[in-house]
Amino acid sequence: MRDAADRLRYLDEVMDLLFPGHDAHPGARSVLPHRLVPRRVVPRRWWHAALGRGLPVHRGTDTIETHLSDVLGRRVRVVVHVRPARRANRKPILEAYDESGLAGFVKIGDSPRARRLVRYESEVLSMLAGRPLKVVMPPDVLYHGEWRGLEVLMLSPLPVTSRRVGSRRVPARLLGSAVQEIAAIRPYGEEGTGEAAWHGDFTPWNVAAGADGRLLVWDWERFAVGVPPGFDALHHFFHRALRRMPPAVAARSCLAQAGGLLEPFGVEVALARRTAVHYLVALAERHRRDGHEPLGPPAVWLNPLVDHEECLL
Prior knowledge:
The chain is of the alpha+beta class. The chain contains 10 helices and 13 strands.
């Protein structure tokens, strides 16, 4: 993990936010599996001694653990995910445990952008809770509130059967059915507008096949309406492609495969290619608004493709 030092610096900031105070308790937490490969921060146990020194944590009376314990009415301990330090929409992600085991996942809005995203995801999930979804299973909102100026959203854990989300290929038919069901969702008061909706971050790591045949879908903070049908299918394909090829090649592949990807949704080939260009431009615009370019400058990975396909726009 080449960014271990950056992750640990950001982790120090996060732990100060979540466990404020003045008297740091030495060795209260352990970084697993190792400080050189930091992925999770867990309550320290005696058998963690081989991992080296523990991570000091403040012992205040008002911490994220005491807050969640108060609002849920039972004792809660948290495991902190060590997040990449350079992501535009980075935010602390926690696993919350009570006496019975995993109680939920907690997102912390610790910046103006992250607070907006967390608040919006709570609104989207509350809207979805009232919809009779047959294919897609989103998490439930267990708690949403503010604590010490931070936005706190606790979501129910979904019944994952695979050890790693995104590690097993989801059947194409299930993905297609989920994309169609999401596209048919309309916020209250916007029914009958004729516009499609999309999840907004329909990636392999945000979806998993459930044991009951439905698709488990996480991270609804980018949900939006008013896009051409098939944006989620293109997003899923593009991010799978990015795992094995450079952004410019993945973008060309997305355009080349657009006809087959969108054919199940009744989109003819010429329109499918226009939709793919529209999607890639929308993604680049999102990165611009976020002030972060994970794919590199659009002039390198996108502009040559858009210029070549200018007649499609």
